[in-house]
Amino acid sequence: MRSKIGRFTFMTACIVIAALTAGAAQGVALSPMETMKGVVAEVFHSLQAYPVDGPPENLPRRREEIRKIIDGHFDAVQMSQRALGKYWKEISEDKRQEFTRLFYWRLYNFYIMRLEAYSDEKVIYNKELLKGNVAAIYTQVSSKKYPEFDIEYRLRQNGDEWKIYDVVIEGVSLVANYRSQFNSFLGKKSFDELLKALREKTPEDSLH
Asked: What is the pLDDT of residues 111-130, one digit of tens each?
C-alpha cells in the first residue's frame, strides 16, 4: 500500500512539472506541442534557480515563480466546470467564482507541495493530436529514481493560447477523479456545505 501511495505522489509531482507546460505563447500562436516544450523549460528554470536545498528565501521566490506559471497556463474555470459536472449549471455565477477560487487553490496546493521535491525528471514528447479547438499531448516521464510512465495532457484553445483543462495519468483523469469526489459529497449534502468544507481547508490569505 505504501509503495502505491509513494508512486502516486511521485506521479502527481510529475504532473505539475509537465502539466504546467501547457502554453507560453508571447504574441505568437504556437502549437500545443511547441507551447509545452517552451514552458517546461521555464518550470525547470524556476526549480533550478531556487532549489529546495538552498537558503530559506528560496521558498517564497520559488513558489511565486511557479504560481505565475500555473496562473498563466491552467484553465481554472474549465477545470472547475468539468470537475463539478452537472452541478455547475445549478449554481449562481457568484458561487461558480467562489468554487473556482477554492478549487484552484486546492489544485495548486496539491501540486506545489509535491513538485518541490523533484527536479530531475525527463519529459519525452511522443505525439500531438488536434481536433478543432482541443488537443491532446502524449508524453512519457522518467527520472533517476522512478520508472517511466505515460501522461496525456488535454488542452483547449483560448484565443491564441492553449491552456490545460485535464491531465490523464496512465488512463486516470485528474478532473474525473475530483468529479467523482464532488459527486459523492453532493449526493449527500448541499453545494453550500461543499463550499464551506473547501473554505475551511483554504487559508484566507491564499486567494488573493
From this structure: 676 666 556 667 889 999 99
Contacts of 120 (CB under 8 A, 6+ apart): 143, 144, 145
Q: What is the pLDDT of residues 4-38, one digit of tens each?
A: 445 544 555 555 555 544 444 344 578 999 987 87
Distance CA(26)–CA(108), nearest Å, equals 23
pTM to 2 decimals?
Answer: 0.76
**E strand or H helix at 165, and its extent?**
strand 161-169
Measure the CA–CA gap between 90 and 27, rounded to whole angstroms: 37
3-state helix, strand, coil in the chain (%, to 5): 55, 20, 25
Q: What is the CATH number of the domain that holds 38?
A: 3.10.450.710
Can you give the residue range of the structural domain that contains 95? Answer: 2-206
**At 172, is the secondary structure helix, strand, or coil?**
strand
